[in-house]
Amino acid sequence: AGLGRGEIEAMLLRLQAYTAAHFRLEEDLMAQRHFPGAAQHRKSHEGHERELANLVKGYQDGTLDLTIKLQGLLQDWNPMHILSEDQEMVDYLLRKQAGGRPKPEP
Description:
With 106 residues, the protein is mainly α. Helix content is 79%, strand content 0%. It has helices spanning 5-32, 38-61, 66-97. The longest helix is centred in the C-terminal third of the chain and has 32 residues, at 66-97.
């Protein structure tokens, strides 16, 4: 047997809470270190949080195919965000820590 609806909903709500907490930590770090791409990065976070909230609501309402939506969210958005946007922030922070000049924002 698989997980019941209540267990899946609880798991989605935990994912939503973890995502929000993780993003706030990233955003605080960007603000503390004066990351020039912070505003755009924050917009990306907001979009992802909206997608996740819609996924949770759709699951709760019974109006979406969770498998397809969750697969798209995890396969498309997370790697793209981590490999491009987060990597840009990490590169900036490493250059700044090493005393290098940060690249200007495009």
